[in-house]
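Colleagues,

Please find the record for the two-part complex below.
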Amino acid sequence: MRLIASSLCIALAGCGAETPELGGNAEHGRLLLRQFGCGACHRVAGVADAQGNIGPPLDGVAQRVYLAGMLPNSPENMARWIRAPKTFDPQTAMPDLGVGEEHARDMVAYLYTLR
Amino acid sequence: MKWLATLVALAIAGAAGIFYAGLYDISATDQHLAPTYRVLDSAMRRSVKQRAARIKQPALDQPGQNQRGLALYRRHCAQCHGAPGVAPELFALGMTPAPANLVYTAREWAPAEIFWVVKEGIKMTGMPAWKYRMPDEDIWAIVSFMRELPRLSPEQYRAMKTGPQDPLEPAVPSAPDAGRGRKAIDQYACVTCHEIPGIVGANAPVGPPLKRIGTRGFIAGVLPNTPDNMVRWIRHPQAVSPASAMPDLGVTERDARDIAAYLATLK
């Protein structure tokens, strides 16, 4: 259901839905999530081969109140988490994947379509 | 027979309409219609009677038992139910149904029935289940004390001295029980933060969903997923991850093991 909703959302918005605060291209973000191997740990609706069960599923992450159980959910915090998880939780198993600022914005734009 | 079928269909459509239009008043400022109340009250009593019939009642009025029951009553029950000469707290006065006045409960209800209600609670009222927070011995102490309540004047109630209050630590049986864990999850309000397969409730998006948590690699992104680590996380989240928003709910060792056993079934 969410897959259909998020695909429709992107399709209808043209080449990408933008998050109001950050900008970013959701469709590009969807492809980046695959390229950075996020699916190896996380299930992400709409991202090919993203069936990992090492970390929590990212389905509905746009509505989640806390990111990583500790950060209030906002586009800025999500981008910060993606780019440098260990600055927030030194023990986290989530690696630093060297995600650049613009790529993080695009990923966040996509993840924010997952309601 | 066609008219009957039409009538039933209309009745169902009418009920559905009332439901969807939000017309039924669910506020706590008004009781149900009297017939509705009678039906619900009667159903509740019958349900309790049926379930309490299986309970074996131990000896009551044992030495010190009523004093212990009084201490527990004052700490856990009086806020909602009041006591001889003592009003319930403000929040309890705002409840519907109003918490029963317990001074005469022992006259109407068998001890095993009172025990059952305290232990299992009553859905959709304010009566909580004490099963996971109070050992059976303590609940029987309250039941025993309640048998004395009808005989106490307000002055006598005030003057009563309480006995020792430390609760017995519930024993931890050897084998974790996933079925019991599923019920324990309800008691610790886990669904107010997490979506959990097999549990009815809010399934709130505060923390991550627990779908496939049984086979997930890491707990809370930091602990390798093992039964011992799951218990550790559930019981003391801040000891594992100081910044975590997951609260310490005072989960007992036994409940944590049972909950971990249930979560392990979510593959």
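Chain A is about 40% helix and 5% strand.

Comments are welcome before we finalize the supplementary table.
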